[in-house]
Design goal:
It is a single chain. This protein is mainly α. It has helices spanning 5-15, 17-32, 42-65, 69-93, 96-99, 104-132, 137-169, 174-192, 194-199, 211-215, 218-226, 228-250, 253-278, 281-306, 316-337, 344-363. 82% of the residues lie in helices and 0% in strands. The longest helix is centred in the middle third of the chain and has 33 residues, at 137-169. The radius of gyration is 21 Å and the shape is globular.
């Protein structure tokens, strides 16, 4: 019998809205008070202001891509809450490593933004899809939580662990690892407390029958199935691009050997964790292979664009996105394979219908 924890959690919130709301407010308010003790460097303060402006742009873009102003406003509100909780936690820590925050910390906040926006996009697009299929918002909310809990938890935890491993190899990344870890913690907290609590009290626009919510990126699957020759050409072109990227990166291996030791260690730990959780070494290795392929291509583009030696901070944000997207895709793919879709083509079709659109939106 399938575990219906999300249904029971939503039911509990629904019957205890006031008491749970007070509890959430006390925990959140206590963390926000730490901002009173936080002293930011002028550079980081300016970067955070730019980050706030970028959040506004993302809210507008989300409203257009998701065809829902209320959903975008909810994402913006919760994103700001997560960021201020992270800075509040740094204020409460009030240790030497946070009093003088380096410029690399701005990149850590970018990782936090990409991680929390991914959480909210996957949960809310899952909500949209279930509502488009005719479910009431409360029922759709429990289904969205049930379907997205494992990939969100895995992607947040593995992202935090990856940066912790990188910081173990390079102590300069310690502050980044702390910020990303706090961001993962508070992003999970908000995703499974404030987000469902607010959606039980505030209704978004009607989604019944919305084709974009119901069918996702099914057009890509149909196009690939109808054009077998082009599919093979894409595979050959992708392999050639990977070989070229590998050659470009390894030509500078002496200069960036320590960087790839960090990335390789992070992906090795990720593979072991996913193999245990998914109970499939095959798909854990495949996820790692595709992730390393993506990192190599990004690194090659950076080398061509900047003509400078690679540094860890250049791959911070792409690495977080790559890990997140891979986990979400394979969790849904394995759910399909172990459910009603035994053939790979059918499982991929189901995956892109249900998860392709949120992956596309988070990447944008």
């Amino acid at each position: 019998m399938q575990n219906q924890w999300a249904f029971h959690w939503i039911l509990w919130l629904l019957h205890n809205q006031k008491s749970m709301g007070v509890g959430f407010a006390l925990v959140t308010g206590g963390m926000l008070l730490g901002n009173l003790f936080l002293t930011l460097s002028p550079m980081l303060n300016a970067d955070l202001q730019w980050l706030g402006m970028s959040l506004l742009v993302m809210v507008v873009l989300a409203a257009w891509l998701l065809s829902s102003v209320r959903t975008a406003l909810l994402m913006g509100l919760l994103s700001g809450l997560v960021l201020t909780m992270v800075t509040g936690a740094l204020g409460w820590a009030h240790s030497g490593q946070f009093e003088k925050v380096s410029a690399l910390s701005s990149l850590a906040f970018l990782v936090v933004v990409s991680m929390m926006m991914s959480n909210f996009v996957h949960l809310l697009t899952g909500l949209h899809r279930e509502m488009a299929r005719g479910q009431f918002q409360h029922d759709a909310l429990s289904e969205a939580l049930q379907m997205n809990m494992q990939p969100i938890l895995l992607s947040n935890v593995t992202t935090a662990i990856s940066f912790a491993v990188a910081a173990w190899f390079d102590p300069e990344l310690k502050t980044i690892a702390w910020i990303v870890g706090l961001g993962a913690l508070f992003s999970l907290w908000v995703s499974f407390t404030w987000l469902p609590w607010l959606l039980l009290n505030w209704f978004i626009e009607c989604r019944v029958g919305e084709p974009k919510d119901r069918y996702g990126l099914v057009v890509i699957v149909e196009w690939l199935q109808q054009h077998a020759t082009l599919r093979r050409l894409l595979a050959v072109g992708g392999a050639g691009l990977g070989i070229l990227a590998l050659w470009m990166v390894f030509s500078q291996m002496e200069m960036v050997e320590s960087l790839w030791v960090q990335i390789g260690g992070a992906f090795f730990g990720l593979t072991l964790l996913l193999a245990l959780v998914w109970q499939s070494l095959k798909y854990a290795v495949l996820n790692t292979f595709l992730g390393l392929y993506s990192v190599l291509v990004v690194a090659a583009v950076i080398l061509v664009w900047t003509e400078k030696p690679l540094a860890a901070w250049m791959l911070v944000v792409p690495l977080g996105l790559i890990i997140d997207d891979g986990i979400h895709f394979f969790v849904r793919f394995l759910r399909a394979k172990r459910g009603f879709f035994q053939q790979n083509a059918q499982a991929i079709r189901f995956t892109l219908v249900s998860i392709g659109r949120p992956i596309w939106v988070t990447s944008l």
